[in-house]
Amino acid sequence: MSGLSLFAQSNADCINSVDICEKKTLSINSAGGEGSNRTEADFIACFMSSENKGQAEENSTWIKFEIAESGSLSFTITPHKQGDDLDFVVYRSLDGSCKNMKIVRCNAAGDPSDWASHSKCLGQTGLRSGESDTSEDAGCNDTDDNAWLAPLNVLKGEKYILLVSNVTTRGPGFDISFGGTALLPCEKKKPVAVTTPKPAKPKPKPAPAMVSKPAPEQIGGRKVEVGEEVKVKSRKIKIRLWDSQVQDGDIISLYLNDKKIIDRVYLTLKPQEFEVELPAGREHYLTVFADDFGKAEPNTAMVLIFDGTREQTIDLVAGRSKQESVKIIAE
After folding, report:
1. Does the pTM of the predicted model rise above 0.85?
2. CA distances from 84 to 12, 50, 125, 184 (A)
3. Hey, CA dihedral for 145, 147, 153, 158, is it positive or negative?
4. How far apart are the first and last CA of the chain?
5. What pLDDT sits at residue 118?
6. For 31-41, how does the pLDDT look when each residue is reduced to its tens digit (9 = 90+)?
7. Which domains does the chain have, with CATH numbers?
């Protein structure tokens, strides 16, 4: 929170995470050591190629928060010492504890501290709009590596735990500021201004609109839940699919309205591209269906829709009881 400063030694274990309830700046004055539990962040996928062989905890700080209102969530981590390599792991706690957690973002990208003046993987890091990566491995070798990952789409009631590690040196801390449309428990919705509408002027009768199909109530016996909507300027669109969390064997199919258009795609961290032509009608529904849950449920797919003019990214989840869908409006 604004003006709050902490020493991370007291928050170096997950069970002692600092609890935040507002999306404001938190200052960690000093970070040193890994706390008393030194195995709680072992064998983390994006750290497997690092010198620590999968150990994500080094001069660690743990932060936790709960979502009060659904929306997007981003954050920026700024090291107090230029050249320090700060890495992070974002977990979703399935039961509110430190024992039942699923990794949703993992960043281990970095470079030696003496490269600070020219490395794109040192300095500020975090989650920000415009990024599509959900994980970056240790080092700075891939073309897209820049130490930034895609924002989270979070739901009311979900609980998250963030691990931040200074893998360069013991001592210096960092500032972390949060953003996005999601609200935390101590934040309030802004009141909506009430205005008296002016009498509407008579409008000419519009041309008959093309009939659009309603959203499917269920697919394969599972409920369809429509969340976000996107607008496209062309009926010929490109769709890219990849695992929005950690590659763990998820297999999905894609439905347009109630028709299967893409069958059994094995999701990886690398986007796979497909071309789709929207049928007649202004409104359509793109739904992710889980064919195989891999190592962990539910299936999580990042879907990028490109209409030739702009790219729009949506994070869709498919479980055993319901499948998420995005509404596509053809302008």
Report:
1. no
2. 18, 16, 11, 29
3. positive
4. 42
5. 80
6. 888 888 988 99
7. 4-179 (2.60.120.380), 219-330 (2.60.40)
